[in-house]
Specification:
Elements (H helix, E strand, L loop, with lengths): L7 E3 L4 E4 L12 E3 L5 E3 L13 E3 L4 E3 L12 E3 L6 E3 L4 E5 L7 H9 L1 H10 L10 H5 L2 E3 L3 H40 L13 E4 H4 E5 L11 H4 L2 E3 L11 E2 L24 E3 L8 E4 L3 E3 L4 E5 L4 H19 L10 H5 L2 E4 L2 H37 L4
Parallel strand pairs: 13-17, 14-16
Antiparallel strand pairs: 1-10, 2-9, 3-4, 5-8, 6-7, 6-9, 11-19, 12-18, 15-16
Helix pairs in contact: 4-9, 7-9
């Protein structure tokens, strides 16, 4: 694709406002718009709310939130692709493409996905109490609009990569489900806790390995981060619940300018567990790394192994999250974490379990590496829109 400044067109010439209200209460599917630029189920308390004032959104119409302040430097903006109509708060601005033979809605959505669009919207927002990116501001957005066939080719290329990622995610979910079935078959469904097999005992999470709390690095004495750039993770680096393997995140100690750390180096095979909201994000360390205070990680004892510890914790995480909600924010303390009950099988059985699980984990790891490459490709495709 070759872009030049002559291809840049004013968005306002291609779109129009839509303001259809739910007057007869015929539409009940209430959604919101997230900063990840998706329509999502609304969590708003609508008890006693007059739903007739809510706006109706048809498939392939857009909605965005004009208030950009206190929004993580992002604009809530999304293209609705549901099969049926939905309703959204009247606080959103809704619009549609006038002629889809001149501007493909999916192409416009690609433009809005670019981080540069968020920065532009924030820069152009104005106001005292709240900063607003108005409809007039939106209309003054200029973007490259090539021939419609070229737009569709660009969209098709992007969506092909998205589809591959979605297919991979579905495959990962199936592999994780298979691993869970193996775990439950060996250690849950066919186990009588009152009559444990020979060599099996009941213990606690502390019996499975060393529980390590993360910390913010010190800046005093130079250590290994100077030369090796060991990854230093926060829960935000676990991009989605279910990401199984983590090695180098977006940040490293050296990249952040830290010279040393008071936090302990976690070896490969450690099980990471987010202990602050959102509690229960998990991963396996795929290399030496460190974490911030948002983690309570387990360095497994060799007799039980990483795989067993991971699935024990995976099956405890919902309980841990539900039982550790504080007045200010949710957090699991190290002393609390240690005391959760856990079954401790004999070493031979744990090794047998690991032998069954490792091929599944290796397959998942390869797929996750592919997805990371594909996600980078999506970013590259978005960056090419301006070239």
């Amino acid at each position: 694709m070759t872009m030049n400044r002559n291809n840049y067109k004013r968005l306002g010439d291609y779109v129009r406002l839509v303001d259809v209200r739910n007057r007869d209460l015929a539409v009940t599917n209430l959604l919101g718009v997230s900063i990840s630029k998706m329509f999502i189920p609304s969590i708003a308390n609508t008890i006693g709310t007059d739903m007739s004032t809510y706006k109706i959104v048809e498939p392939f119409q857009f909605a965005y939130g004009p208030v950009t302040s206190r929004n993580g430097d992002k604009i809530t903006f999304a293209l609705y692709k549901g099969a049926e109509k939905c309703i959204i708060s009247s606080a959103y601005i809704t619009f549609e493409v006038i002629d889809k033979e001149k501007l493909d809605p999916d192409y416009l959505m690609m433009w809005a996905l670019r981080p540069e669009f968020d920065r532009y919207a924030r820069f152009m927002s104005n106001g005292s109490a709240r900063e607003i990116f108005s409809w007039d501001d939106m209309c003054e957005v200029y973007l490259p609009i090539p021939d419609i066939n070229e737009q569709r080719l660009i969209v098709a290329e992007y969506q092909a990569v998205e589809k591959r990622i979605a297919t991979n995610d579905a495959l990962i979910a199936k592999l994780e489900e298979t691993a869970q079935i193996i775990y439950k078959d060996m250690f849950v469904n066919n186990v009588d806790l009152a009559n444990l097999p020979n060599g099996w005992i009941m213990g606690t999470l502390e019996s499975l390995g060393e529980i390590v709390s993360g910390a913010t690095p010190s800046t005093e004495v130079p250590e290994y981060w100077d030369d090796y750039g060991i990854a230093w993770l926060s829960p935000a680096d676990l991009s989605r619940e279910g990401t199984l393997f983590m090695s180098r995140g977006a940040k490293s100690i050296s990249a952040l300018g830290y010279k040393s750390a008071s936090t302990k180096l976690l070896p490969k095979g450690s099980v990471l567990f987010s202990s602050r909201a959102p509690i229960g994000l998990m991963a396996i360390a795929d290399g030496d790394l460190c974490t911030n205070q948002g983690f309570k990680s387990i360095v497994p004892h060799s007799k039980v192994g990483t795989e067993y510890v991971y699935y024990v914790l995976l099956n405890l995480k919902d309980r841990i999250a539900n039982e550790n909600t504080g007045a200010t924010f949710a957090e699991v303390s190290g002393s609390t974490m240690k005391m959760y009950e856990a079954l401790i099988p004999d070493e031979k059985t744990c090794k047998e379990f690991s032998k069954k699980i490792l091929p599944l984990h290796d397959y998942i790891k390869n797929i996750e590496h592919e997805n990371k490459a594909l996600t980078n490709l999506l970013s590259l495709l978005l960056s090419k829109l301006t070239k």
